[in-house]
Amino acid sequence: MNPLKRFGQAIRTWWLRVMMACLLAIPTGCQDAQNHPNVWLQKAYLHEGRQEYPQAIDAITKAIELEPDNPVWYFDRGVFKEAQGDLDAAVQDYEICLQKDPRNVRARNNRAVIKITQHKTEEAFEDLNLLIEKNPTFALGYFNRGRLNFSIEHFDDAHHDLNRAIELDPQAGMFYFVRAQVQKARSESVHALQDITIAHFLMPDNDDVRKLKSELELSLD
Length: 221
Hints:
- There is one protein chain.
- By secondary structure, the protein is mainly alpha-helical.
- 80% of the residues lie in helices and 0% in strands.
- The termini are far apart.
């Protein structure tokens, strides 16, 4: 093996061992690591991967204490809180993130999704309209506004938004699934079946997709 390559691999192995030792020993050792927010961030991700959300929140809070002006930490903590079902607390973190970084697309989108879940339609529209205005190529913005329009039976507006979402991301099976629902509501069963067939190809294990596909196939027999 090339000596320089062998040396580089040795350095990377040593560094990984140091970082893992620090992550595992933070409570009793590696004092310098305790003062680095990225170490706490990695601990938070480890806990998130195990679905240990309270521990993930505690770890990311340590990162925030060390670097309170970084909007990313608030977004990540909001994600962890949302995952454990604490939606109001998640919204608070997304709002802090947006105060520090008004252009954060993911924070605004996530806040809008929670508002949809909470049936706060006007607030959700406000977020999504601004999101799309500032980020006209963000497919999830159109998708979420489309399903919000669908939920209030604005089928034409929903169809328009979902068309745009699919143009931007033609591999997202959920986009076709929701558009199929919209087309079914508009009595366009043939087009709905076309969309649900694509959705089933992209998401073959989704029970809701399979159910709607069967319903549409029976209706067209």
